[in-house]
Amino acid sequence: MKQKNVTHLLATDLDGTLVGEKELTSALFEYYGERTYEVELVYVTGRHHDSTMELIKAENLPMPSILISDVGTEMYDFDDPELHERWKKTLEEQWWPEEISRIAAQCSGLTPQSIPSTHRLSYFAEDAGAFEEVKQKLEENGVPHKLIFSSGRDVDILPPNAGKGEALSFLLREKGWEKANVLIAGDSGNDRDMITMGYPAVVVGNCQDELKKLPEHPLIFRAENHCAGGIREAWEHFFEKETVESNG
User: Fold this and answer.
1) Strands across the sheet with 121-125, in order?
2) Which end of the chain has the least Cβ crowding within 10 Å, N or C?
3) Please, are residues 29 and 62 in contact by the beta-carbon 8 Å criterion?
4) What does the alpha-carbon distance between residue 221 and residue 183 come to, in Å, rounded to a whole number?
5) Nearest to 201 by CA among 164, 148, 175
6) Is residue 135 packed enough to be buried (19+ CB in 10 Å), middle (13-18) or exposed (0-12)?
7) What is the per-residue pLDDT for 173?
8) How many Å apart are CA 184 and CA 235, to the nearest integer?
């Protein structure tokens, strides 16, 4: 399949980032409509597929070209269904869900979440101590994994090569979009690995504490405005006021 030529791309989390203040979301898309170029949309969310589609409908969001859901363990290209299968195949090489479930069940303070995903185990943590306990036990047992703690309570255990950043990196390589003007936007801990990929990125003004601790970097813009207002603020900073060579 011939790949689309993409010059500008927004890869954004949904809840608390693109979505959260309707007026700002509408204003962002009006702003994009006034540009002389097209902005490719990639939604990168912790929600599962059906929940994301419900949110898109409820918030009247434009459909993205690509949806990366379940904290980067599922990927849907609405023009290329095979992309999903290619991504899943890469995740299965080091995924031990039964062993992870056994270990997590031994940890106090963890409550399983009912998430319809094959390559993701999710829990609510009573406190940071519960997160530290499962982290220690997984490491002691030599179980390959990626562990993500976000919003002060959500624990996601993924294959070691999963996550929002890994999924987005895979997508950009597959599509040949690495040289596009990419802006990555997020508000919580599960956005950290994509925000630190080396592309222009924005931490929106209403971000969770875990992103406030990120080291300063010229490609990480800390917005004053909340949600979609912060995305526009960063877009103007990187792509309208100066030329930034994305990805280094």
Assistant:
1) 110-112, 121-125, 154-158, 146-150
2) C
3) yes
4) 10
5) 164
6) middle
7) 95
8) 10
Sequence-distant (6+) residues with CB within 8 A of 199 are 182, 183, 184, 219, 246, 247
pLDDT digits (tens, 9 = 90+) for 202-239: 999 999 888 998 999 999 999 999 999 999 999 999 99
Q: Does the pLDDT value for residue 248 go beyond 50?
A: no
In sign, the C-alpha dihedral spanning 229, 230, 233, 239 is negative
pLDDT for res 159: 95
Determine the 3-state secondary structure of 147 from DSSP.
Answer: strand
pTM exceeds 0.85 for this model: yes
169: number of CA atoms within 13 Å, CB side?
15
What span, in angstroms and rounded, lies between the C-alpha atoms of 54 and 69? 13
Please name which of 196, 195, 165, 198 lies closest in space to residue 179, comparing C-alpha atoms: 198
60's tokens: 């009247």
What pLDDT digit, counting tens, does each position of 54-101 carry?
999 999 999 999 999 999 999 999 888 899 999 999 999 899 999 999
Output 2 or 83, whichever has higher pLDDT: 83
Q: Locate all alpha helices (DSSP H) within 34-81, ordered by sequence.
A: 49-58
